[in-house]
């Protein structure tokens, strides 16, 4: 195990990855695409520079799905775990589902993004900033 790194995997373990710290950002995303892709009220992502990300094994098990004009989601073909998101708006970073990382990263979630798109039944009781609007990142 590399010092200053965290490791993760999909549910079945076919896809394994490493992230060198530091990360760039961590947030709970409430957009409808994330909710549907994960079957959850919101998803917590950690953003990392692609140079700090390494796929250790399972590249042949990754399925990529173009979920929008700018975004591609990757998931395990065996177990269906949603793992990564890549955007042409941020080509040097990759978003990784925090729940698939074993251990702690270098930061706690910093905000709720796309909060104005949240599911009506989701009620958040923390003091994190709520961001939304057209970009999903405008202060509300």
Commentary on this structure:
- The protein contains one helix and 13 strands.
- With 140 residues, it is mainly beta.
- It has a single domain (5-119), classed as Metal Binding Protein, Guanine Nucleotide Exchange Factor, Chain A, CATH 2.170.150.70.
- The strands form three sheets. It has a seven-stranded mixed beta sheet with strand order 6-7-8-9-4-3-11.
- Strand 1 and strand 2 form a beta hairpin.
- The N and C termini lie far apart (41 Å).
Bin the strand percentage: 35-45%
The helix content is under 10%
How many beta-strand elements? Answer: 13
Strands of the largest sheet, in order across it?
6-7-8-9-4-3-11
CATH architecture: Beta Complex
Distance between the termini: 41 Å
Q: What is the CATH T-level topology? A: Metal Binding Protein, Guanine Nucleotide Exchange Factor, Chain A
Q: Unreliable segments (pLDDT under 50, ≥5 consecutive)?
A: none
The radius of gyration computed from the alpha-carbon positions, rounded to a whole number of angstroms, is 15 Å
Give a summary of the structure in a few sentences.
The protein is mainly β.
């Amino acid at each position: 195990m590399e010092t200053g790194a965290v490791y993760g995997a999909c549910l079945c373990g076919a896809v394994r990855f490493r992230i060198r710290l530091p990360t760039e950002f961590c947030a709970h995303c409430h957009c409808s695409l994330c909710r549907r892709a994960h079957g959850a009220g919101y998803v917590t992502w950690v953003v990392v520079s692609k140079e700090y990300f390494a796929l250790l094994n399972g590249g042949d098990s990754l399925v990529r799905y173009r979920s929008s004009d700018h975004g591609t989601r990757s998931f395990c073909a065996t177990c269906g775990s949603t793992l990564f998101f890549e955007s042409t708006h941020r080509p040097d970073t990759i978003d990784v589902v925090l729940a698939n990382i074993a251990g702690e990263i270098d930061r706690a979630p910093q905000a709720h993004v796309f909060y104005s798109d949240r599911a009506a039944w989701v009620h958040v009781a923390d003091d994190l900033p709520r961001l939304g609007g057209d970009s999903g990142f405008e202060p509300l």
